[in-house]
Every structure is written in C-alpha cells, then in structure tokens.
Amino acid sequence: MLDLSSFKKQNYTPYETPLERAHKLELFLGKKSPKIYIKRDDMLGLTGGGNKTRKLEFLMADAIEKKATAIITCGAIQSNHCRLTLAAAIRENCECHLVLEERIPNTFDQEASGNNFLFQLLGATSTTLAKKGENTQAIMKKMADELKKQGKTPYIIPGGGSNEIGSLGYVNCFYEIKNQIKTLAINPSTIICTSGSSGTHAGLVTGIKITKTPIKCLGISVMRSKIEQTELVRSLASKTARLLQANTSINDEDILIDDNYIGNGYSMPTPEMIEAVTILAQTEGILLDPVYTGKALAGMIDLIRKNSISSDETIIFIHTGGSPALYAYQKDFHQTLKPNYNKTP
What we know:
By secondary structure, the chain is α/β, with parallel strands linked by helices. It is built from eleven helices and ten strands. Helix 7 links the parallel strand 7 and strand 8.
C-alpha cells in the first residue's frame, strides 16, 4: 500500500470506525440475504459525524499549511458537508462562510430543522443562499476576493470536499477496511456506497486499484445519470491516483454506478428510501439520512431482493452518516410510521 504519511492530516477521529455485522437486517431480508457488514463512518468525529470528516482531515491540514483564516464552502440547503466543514473551521479557529444552493425551488426555510438549525447553532460566519442554476463556484470566488480585501486568507473547499486532496480520506478508509477484513477473516465481494459529489466513491476505487484488491465498489447515484457519474468518479479517482504518484490507471470499467434509485431528483424522498431508513432503524437501531445513505440502502435492498447480489456473497455497506438531515424530513416519514403510544390509566 502507498504510504499516506507524506500528506499532512488533522486528526478529527482518534479511532477506527467499526465494521459491524448487520445480523438483524440479514434476518429481516431472509434467505436471499448475503452477509452484510456496515462500515460505521456515521461514527466519525466532528459535529454529528459522517464521511466528510475523513476528507476534512486532509483538506483542513492543507488550509492550515496555507495559513487560511476563513473557510468557504458550498452545498445543498441541508448539506452534511457544510455542517462538518463548519465544525472543522470552529476547531481550527477559522471563519466559515457557507453558500447553500436551493436545488429545488422554494424549499429553503430559515427555520427548518436538521442541518439548517445546526448551521445557526454552530454560528456560521455568513450564509448565502444561491438559487438553482446559480454558479456557486463564482459566488465563492467573489466571496474569497472580498475577504482578501479585508486582509483575510480565504481557502475554498469544493462541494462535498470532493477534490483529490479530500479523496485521500477514502483511500485511507479503504486501507482501514482492508485491515479490518483481514482481522475479521472475511472475503467481501462488493463495497456499496453512495455516489454523489464523488469523493468517497473515487477514494475507495483508488484504494482498491492501488492495493490490487479483488473487490468491486458499487456506487448508488443520488443525483446524476450513470454516464455522468461514471465520468465524474473516474476523473477524480485518476487525479487522486496521480496525487499519490501511484503507478495505476483507472478506467470506466473500474467505476460501477447504479442510477435506478434517484427517484424524482436529488434530495427528493422516495417510498423505497423511507422503507430502507425505517428497516435499518427498526432492525439495527442505526439511523440513515434521507438524501444519501437512505437511497443507497434502498438500492442495496432492491438488488438483494432481485438476486443481483447473491446469498453466498459478503458485502460491505459504507454508512456515510448524515442523520441530522433526517429531522428535516419528519413529515415524509409520518405518513408511513404508526404511533404506538398508550395512555396511562
């Protein structure tokens, strides 16, 4: 394995996240179920945990090296990435300026729960709302120019923390998984993850290719078509491999994408997502988020039910966190959940 020690890294999680067997989920899925392990990256450090913490360990180290005093980033109105970037900025005594994109018109609510509430509680230095179609990169660049005029040193982190520096976090994650696989004496055929801004998926693929590990990595797309997402992941994985000076090439065939579980669009609930989130909560006591991991698990469950994943396989599901966003979707769940409250006599 290539050594990542030459890259500076902040330590926001002083432990490995567990790789847990989901016995009760397997029982629920019945005879068709493979052996399922969940990589608990919802237990990573910083406020509320989640996959962006791994990326931010490398991104914030780069920002600190460049003497940044103000962090700028962007995301959707319930962005897990923005929450965690804000938490990291607080940890490093930096300002944090958020650009939130309203990807579905008229859905932003200043008083919304979930991550929106946490942006306010954590005290973002500024929050700018961008309408769908506005160029968030241009907005962040203009913001950086204004901060420079004020004598500050801005550092722009892309949406999702998904560039080659951020993706190092999931190369590192795969190294961690590889050691856990050895310790547990298991032989997984497939890793299943959400594929969105692409940094998590690209980092895992890069780690797999570098180590020449015979395992597939299937990304469940939450926002783009298979063709678009494949190109995005391949491009970023290739850049990450080059940053590592790895003697490996990454091709379209290395990128596995399933785009059948997006529904009507990014962040829009689907019945399958609601079912998947409810199943995992009620079998394993684990909370997913409705935008990313909920749809990814819905995809995994459907593939198992259709025998696209066979019962003799072992698979790993990457839990990328994001449960704070769940609280902004209560109304969508209330339609299916049945209260079971008893009155006292």
